[in-house]
Amino acid sequence: MSLNHVRPWRNIYRRTSRQIMVGSVPVGGDAPITVQTMTNTPTPDVKATVAQVQAAADAGADIVRVSVPDEASSKALKEIVRESPVPIVADIHFHYKRGIEAAEAGAACLRINPGNIGSKERVREVIQAARDHGCSMRIGVNAGSLEKHLLEKYGEPCPDAMVESGLEHIRILQDNDFHEFKISCKASDVFMAAAAYQQLAEQTDAPIHLGITEAGGLTSGTIKSAIGLGNLLWMGIGDTIRVSLSADPVEEVKVGYEILKSLGLRHRGVNIISCPSCARQGFDVIKTVEALEKRLEHIKTPMSLSIIGCVVNGPGEALMTDVGFTGGGAGRGMVYLAGKKSHSMSNEQMIDHIVEEVEKKAAEIEAQPKTPEAAE
Predict the structure, then answer these.
(1) Please, are residues 35 and 62 in contact by the beta-carbon 8 Å criterion?
(2) b/e map of 203-232 (b: 16 or more CB within 10 Å)?
């Protein structure tokens, strides 16, 4: 829940959903919205896959998905799970044995469509394996792989077809008395995905995994995901998210966090508020922000930093940030701490100095007693 009693127009009222566990990570209910990504290394290459999982976890990923398309991947999964710092979701398609093997290997969750892995008996075997090993499931509906009978019924992929597919898969699990599942209904079309998710949210209390699938490259995919996921999250829909980009998985995690941070739904690291720069700037804003983003990646403490080129908006923005710098004249600017003027600093020294001030403030915040709200 994102509640602000001083500024109620910032409030987001999350949809009520039941909670499941993905390993040690709660999903749904009142749990924080989790950020996921997926490895793109060959799964049998354990060293490369674990390195990618670790990099994603360092960037803030709560959960990482790994594709398990063959027996070699199943064998590697056990070691990947053992070395992973976060719960691993096994991505399973068509082969029911891979699902059983993944559960036995210690996967925290199976991404699976129970309707496409064979007979009812095979489905029961996978469900039993998940139950025996404490493994949850994600039903993953995708507009690009809808069942033939639904395409014949609706003529083309559409929100109604996606939701019907999802509800059919839900019934299979429920008929087998399995309820530890979440569900997604992804499409590359932002409108289709948003409409499907809104319908789905009204018809199930299962936790919802949000995603705009095959969104594109870093820039275009980020924009599509921010529009699609941002609007759904704003409506209170969504318990875990994955930003799908043709880019490094770490970038997916970063974008996912930025979407959640912009809505006040998660808080991690330094939120930099900076101006686009103009002829009034007293220093090179763009290069400064680029440098600070890299220099401050190690800060995990939630805090804010304003970097504003001139005094038109600089002092006002600094009022609401932990640390601020506003450009002035004669090669110097003003440093603000906790919203108040503190001291001036030369442009040449400002990056190193701001990093020091941010690190100092982060240490102060970490030293304070944690409340449940502050912990997230």
Answers:
(1) yes
(2) ebebbbbbbbbbbbebeebbebbbbbbeeb
Which of 187, 180, 118, 108 has the alpha carbon at shortest distance from 146? Answer: 187
Q: For strand 303-308 and strand 323-327, is the pairing parallel, antiparallel, or unpaired? A: parallel
**What is the distance between the terminal CA atoms of the chain, rounded to a whole angstrom?**
11
DSSP 115: G
Whether residue 206 contacts residue 195, with contact meaning beta carbons closer than 8 Å, is answered with no
Question: In the numeric block, which tokens belong to residue 45?
Answer: 């290459």
Instruction: Kindly list the averaged pLDDT for each block of 10 residues, start to end, along the chain of length 376.
Output: 70 95 97 98 98 96 97 96 98 92 97 80 93 96 91 96 95 95 96 98 98 94 96 97 96 96 92 93 96 94 95 91 94 94 95 97 89 53
Q: What distance in Å separates the CA atoms of residue 166 and residue 279, rounded to the nearest whole number?
A: 53
The whole model's pTM is what? 0.90
Q: Are 195 and 161 in contact (CB under 8 A)?
A: no
Helix (H) or strand (E) holding 331: none
Spatial separation of the C-alpha atoms in residues 3 and 261, rounded to whole Å: 14
